[in-house]
Specification:
Elements lengths: L14 H7 L6 H32 L8 H15 L2 H9 L6 H22 L6 E3 L3 H12 L4 H20 L2 H8 L2 H22 L3 E4 L3 E4 L7 H23 L5 H18 L44 H29 L12 H18 L4 E3 L3 H6 L5 H21 L4 H15 L11 H17 L2 H18 L3 H4 L3 H16 L1
Protein name: Permease
Main location: membrane
Subcellular location: Endomembrane system
Length: 509
């Protein structure tokens, strides 16, 4: 290329000078392209740095030894393992006479609100959505069995949320969290790991009901082989895929495992190997549409909580229902926070969780907001552990999950096709990771080890985090009290109160 220096990026030249120095010797195009490219790159760098600075300021990424990419990948993973609630919650609550389309929208919005609040108030990677178990209690017990209208049941959920807000602001829930001994907190983490793995095995249809032994392994020889059987095999392949990538230290292994298993399912359906069977709970994994813009259905449930007919209301029954929601939500949330925070090494040397007030307040506000939208109790999800396993450590993980739940209002047809056999491997692997906390339990001290063991086995066998905590608290307090170790273990007065309340719960409810 001929003479003439390249145009300095910050030099201003008039048109004549540019023509004389550059156009005549053929360098004009190159100079302009280089100049534009450099300016564009600087703008992109400035914008990128600005965004990163904002995210760093809000979520303290460096302080938590993480980065934007890891947090977003973790948030997507958490969402993928939770997305089933978008299909299951409308199915359960519609039994109470509620509009399923309205419930789907309410589920998405309440999950977004709760998870975004968790991100902003506590900066933790925990996600929220309407809770399984609590939705079944809402529909089948409170409405169908006890005869309440679903509007009245929503009022009980709303009232529970208000009480939770008060308890969170007055530090009562934080005190309950701190009162639980470190040994039981480790046991809760292990118990949740087994519980998550058990849920994953069930979702994969690898473990099924049995009239003779309660549970048994899936048979691959029956009429449902091309639906349930193939789904179970794909789930096993998914576990293997994730395990291989974890051994190879691939970042995002769990998320990739979910997507690859889903793609394998699509290929199997296209080839006729996998055949959907609605009666067996196995549906098409091929999206038929991607978006839906009909939000009018939400009007069927939004604000109905305030349109309650109190005539003939049995006050004692109402408070019993509200207390049942309160009890399960309280200890499910505490258990989940203990388990997931323990997995992420977020607990301090005294077993306490910093910023727990913000986390509990987010959970409480989301519960009342969910009731207004038209869904049962919104609570913190154990599936958050999948995002933590992927490296999520801050509220950016939660915010990513929350935004995806918001987008699910529009992209619900796509998200609803994610099969359970694709997400089940993630739950199974996360369960494995959470078992590591068992090393923190002192098995040489039976007064700690036996209650810890009971806590661990109770969660998967009773299919309830709160039941595991209840059995652990009762057994730990009574065993140490009866054997004269109360002073040595420095049992908190709140542990005595909890023990009495748990016993009364089993006697009266």
């Amino acid at each position: 290329m001929g003479g003439g220096a390249l145009l300095p990026m910050d030099t201003k030249m008039d048109f004549a000078e540019i023509w004389t120095n550059y156009v005549q010797d053929g360098t004009m195009v190159f100079v302009f392209l280089a100049h534009a490219s450099a300016r564009g790159a600087r703008r992109k760098t400035i914008n990128s740095n600005g965004r990163n600075f904002m995210l760093e300021k809000v979520f303290k990424l460096r302080e938590n030894h993480t980065n934007v990419k890891t947090e977003i990948m973790a948030g997507i993973t958490t969402f993928m393992t939770m997305a089933y609630i978008l299909a299951v919650n409308p199915s359960v609550l519609s039994a109470a006479g509620m509009d399923p389309n309205a419930i789907l929208i309410a589920t998405s919005l309440s999950a977004f609100i709760g998870t975004a609040l968790m991100a902003l108030l506590a900066n933790y990677p925990f996600a929220l959505a309407p809770g399984m178990g609590l939705n079944a209690y809402f529909a089948y017990t409170v409405v169908l069995k006890m005869g309440y209208t679903w509007q009245m049941a929503l009022m009980a959920v709303f009232a529970e949320g208000i009480i939770f807000i008060i308890l969170s602001l007055t530090n009562v829930r934080e005190a309950l969290f701190n009162a639980i001994p470190t040994t039981l907190k480790s046991a809760v983490s292990v118990g949740i790991g087994l519980f998550i793995a058990f849920v994953g095995l069930q979702n994969a249809k690898l473990i099924v009901n049995s009239d003779s032994t309660l549970l048994t392994y899936q048979s691959f020889k029956g009429e449902t082989f091309h639906s349930v059987g193939v789904g179970a095999i794909l789930a096993l392949i998914g576990v293997l895929i994730i395990a291989i990538m974890l051994v190879k230290q691939v970042k995002g292994a769990i998320l990739y495992g979910i997507v690859i298993t889903w793609v394998l399912g699509i290929l199997c359906e296209l080839c006729g190997v996998y055949i959907p069977d609605a009666e067996a709970g196995m549906y098409s994994v091929i999206p038929t549409s991607f978006v839906s813009f009909d939000f009018s259905a939400l009007g069927q449930t939004f604000g109905q909580v305030f349109k309650v007919d109190f005539a003939g209301l049995n006050v004692l029954d109402f408070f019993a229902v509200m207390f049942a929601f309160l009890f399960v939500d309280l200890f499910d949330t505490l258990g989940t926070l203990i388990g997931v925070a323990s997995k992420a090494d977020m607990l301090d040397e005294n077993g306490r969780l910093p910023r727990i007030k913000g986390a509990l307040l987010a959970d409480a506000i989301a519960t009342s907001a969910g009731a207004v939208l038209g869904t049962s109790t919104t609570t913190t999800y154990v599936e958050s552990a999948s995002g933590v396993t992927e490296g999520g450590r801050t509220g950016l993980t939660a915010m990513t999950t929350g935004v995806l739940f918001l987008l699910a209002v529009i992209f619900s047809p796509l998200f609803l096709t994610i099969p359970s056999f694709a997400t089940a491997p993630a739950l199974i692997v996360v369960g494995f990771y959470m078992l590591g906390a068992v090393a923190k339990i002192d098995f040489d001290d039976p007064s700690d080890a036996i209650p810890a063991f009971l806590t661990i086995v109770a969660m998967p066998l009773a299919y309830s985090i709160s039941e595991g905590i209840a059995i652990g608290v009762i057994s730990w307090t009574l065993l140490n009290l009866i054997t004269g170790k109360a002073k040595e273990k420095k049992i908190s007065p709140l542990m005595y109160v909890l023990t009495v309340l748990f016993i009364l719960k089993y006697v009266l409810l």
